[in-house]
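[09:14] KT: can someone run the structure on this one? pasting the chain below
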Amino acid sequence: MELIRQGSYKIIRVDGGEELRCEKPTFDLVLEALGADCLDTVLLDRENWQVMAVDDTGLIDGKPINARATELYHAVCKPGTVFPICGDVVLFDDRDFALPETGISWLDTEAS
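[09:31] RB: done, structure tokens below
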């Protein structure tokens, strides 16, 4: 998997297209890119802070399956998981969302 650097994010579309945007992601930018009202995240690579944001209601909203995103998801989730990722996704470096005064991100608070 190609690492996404801080200060940029990549959109992976359901049609397989990819778009790298060279600006720091924000929650509003991610929501807009996904056409979503709420997000869920998938930790892809803890060591390199790589996270995938998905439309939390993509499946129930009837969005098409994103084959590449589903492949990334199944590579890191519990064996036997069959649920797909539906809709476009955004990959980013979680340090872009770390609290500036502490450097703490959600990765630091997740249960081990």
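[09:33] KT: thanks! The chain has a mean pLDDT of 90.
[09:34] RB: yep, looked fine to me
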